[in-house]
Amino acid sequence: MRKRFASVVKDESGVTAVIVAISVTLFVGFLAYVVDIGYAYEMRRQLQSAADSAALAGMTDKVNGEAPDQVLAIAQDYAARNDSVGLPDTLDVIPPDDESGQTIVDQDDFVQIGVSKQANYAFAPIFGRDNQMIYAQAKAIRTYITGAGDLVPWGLGTVRPTEIKAYVGDNPNPYYLTDGNQDGVWDGSVDAPGTPSPDGYLVDIEVKNGYDYVQPLEDVGRITVD
After folding, report:
1. What is residue 75's predicted lDDT score, i.e. its pLDDT?
2. What is the pTM for the complete model shown?
3. pLDDT for 37
4. Residues in the chain, pLDDT under 50
5. What is the Cα–Cα distance from 184 to 171, expressed in whole angstroms?
6. Helix and strand tally (H, E) in the chain?
7. DSSP state letters, 214-225
8. Cα 175 to chain center, whole Å?
9. Residue 209: what pLDDT?
10. How many alpha carbons fall within 13 Å on the CB side of residue 47?
11. How many CA atoms lie within 13 A of 158 on its CB side?
12. Which partner for 208 in 53, 66, 118, 163 could form a disulfide, CB atoms 3.0-4.6 Å apart?
């Protein structure tokens, strides 16, 4: 009897298969969780981008004097343009009359846009977890410049130029224009190139202001030499 009992206790055949089956199940479950969570975070990130662009577009229309209906329409348009590519369903801009209050377009100083989209999980339903709605919200606020100093124009026309040079053709030496009457009208004379050219010589202008900001103006005119 004792020998038979000892043989039963020592019989461990099949234990490895059970351990492997349990480990694989846990690993697959963990992998499924990671995939679904990653999918939800990616959707949330893209929804935030859509909400940001929608709020900025709506605020731009608000500043231009558009009515709330038009502000909402442009916000919906920009949200749709930034919808997640490759993900199922389409996002929704939460309407202003929703009880959540996430979308506000009737205030003078800000536009707030809320968006939502359903996340259709691949593995969560297997473990009894339902699909869920993902939300994002953005707020664009109207602000006013109260002061500035030592600003250099960038991407704008040069303000109050202090030096203007003209280049004719391939001549590397510039001709300096002057504002003799201090009335904002710069003029001067240039020497015509010695070689005739029916097509003319291109004239380039270089404008410089007191902050050493240089703005080149290419092909502003043409000098014809017969």
Report:
1. 93
2. 0.54
3. 82
4. 5, 148, 151-156
5. 26
6. 3, 7
7. EEEEEEEEEEEE
8. 43
9. 75
10. 25
11. 19
12. 163
b/e burial code for range 50-84 (CB count within 10 A of at least 16 → b): bbbbbbebbbebbeeebebeebbbbbbebbeebbb
Structure confidence at residue 191 (pLDDT): 72
Residue with tokens 């040079």: 165
Contact call for residues 92 and 116 (beta carbons, < 8 A) = yes
- How would you write 17-72 as a 3-class SS string? HHHHHHHHHHHHHHHHHHHHHHHHHHHHHHHHHHHHHHHHHHHHHHHCCCCHHHHH
In a 13 Å sphere around the CA of 154, the CA atoms on its Cβ side amount to 3
* Dihedral angle over CA of 66, 68, 73, 77, nearest 10: 80
146-168 pLDDT, tens digit per residue, is 554 554 444 445 556 788 888 88
Q: How many residues does the chain have?
A: 226
Question: Which of 146, 148, 117, 144 is CA-nearest to residue 132?
Answer: 117
Distance CA 113, CA 71 (A): 10
pLDDT of res. 7: 53
Question: Which residues lie below 8 Å from residue 76, measured CB to CB, with a gap of 6+?
Answer: 54, 93
92-104 burial by CB neighbour count: b if 16+ within 10 A, else e?
ebbebeeeeebbe
Q: Report residue 26 as tokens.
A: 């846990």
Task: Work out the end-to-end distance of the chain between its first and last CA atoms, rounded to an integer number of angstroms.
Answer: 127
Calculate the average pLDDT of the chain.
77
